[in-house]
């Protein structure tokens, strides 16, 4: 798998979409589930991009190119994940990054895991103001909410957002994930009554609760 991570990292930094497409076609035989594909391949690719960026071995532009390339690959995969006949009765989840938070790739992975498990998903993406979140919860009444936070200076904003959500008095499951969850004890910041998730494996059983089993995205013979 390390070799695959290295190859994909190089192609992503070069922004070589035709090669990435070819690599993807050739590696369908890996038969990884969506969660494995993201955790074992795409996340390590982004981490090595981050470490090259930190050591000044790649430029900011190359880092942006790598992010866009991985985003492109995920969008391609999504067509194998989305279920056209989504049930209206399926549970629903609202996903967003806190205002000021641009790191959205991880949350996009979360959205795919829930979509694959046939949830109705609204993915609001990066930097969503809390008042917009509150309006959307009121309008859409989701069963669950997923918040992503990578930057520690945003922890007070997370606390404020959670307070505003709880003041709505609705019975909603709240999942919080992102880099800070692995790095800090969020209870020290007064953040409790939420499900803290370090990675996609932490949401697998929650997403599958009452849903059909997730299918591999890279199985042999897939169209
Ligand atoms: C790509 C990237 C960017 C991109 C993001 C693009 C995008 N659309 O996501 C851009 C260029 C915008 C960016 C900007 C910045 N970045 Co940046 N970035 C990264 C990088 C290289 C990769 C992040 C990533 O995609 N990781 C892969 C994903 C899959 O991992 P993940 O987000 O953790 O998600 C996983 C879990 O956390 C979980 N998860 C995440 N969210 C959720 C939510 C729920 C509900 C659940 C259940 C689970 C879950 O699931 C995922 C799968 O396991 C990291 C390096 C690194 N080591 O992470 C730096 C990094 C995070 N960035 C960093 C910094 C400093 C910045 C900037 C401040 C740089 C600057 N000076 O402008 C800005 C801040 C922008 C902002 N306001 O947010 C630092 C943060 C350091 C810190 N102290 O916190 C890092 C660590 C780099 C470094 N070593 O310095 N960045």
From TrEMBL:
InterPro entries: Cbl-bd_cap, Cobalamin-bd, Cobalamin-bd_sf, Met_Synthase/Corrinoid, Meth_synthase_dom. Keywords: Cobalt, Metal-binding. It comes from the Bacteria. Signal peptide: none annotated. Residues 90-221 form the B12-binding domain. The keyword Chloroplast does not apply. One of its GO terms (molecular function) is metal ion binding. CDD domains: B12-binding_like (cd02065). One of its GO terms (cellular component) is cytosol. GO terms for biological process: homocysteine metabolic process; tetrahydrofolate metabolic process. This is Cobalamin B12-binding domain-containing protein. It comes from Rossellomorea vietnamensis.
